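Subject: for your reference before the review

Hello V.,

The reviewers asked for a structural picture of the protein, and I figured it would be easier to keep everything in one thread rather than splitting it across files. Below is the amino acid sequence we used in the manuscript, unchanged from the supplementary table.
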Amino acid sequence: MSINICLDLPQMSAAEYARRQGVSADSVKQLMDSGALPFVQRGRGCVRYVNMVALAAQAAQLAGNQSAWNQPQQIEGIS
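And here is what came back from the structure prediction:
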């Protein structure tokens, strides 16, 4: 299986990421603070951006470690 990931932006503001995910910007900032959401920052006190490249790499790595939850070959009547 191959996975193709296309990103429209390599970095995204917390506000834009929050809008696209349907969560608050504060929630995104908390995820950044906890280390659960990768981010880039040019310097101390500068704006933080969600690192979409690192996030996609994490997702691809996690997807590669999973097997299908359903085993269609074991379900009767499915060929």
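For the response letter, the relevant points are probably these. The chain has three helices and three strands. The mean pLDDT is 86.

Happy to draft the paragraph if you're swamped.

O.
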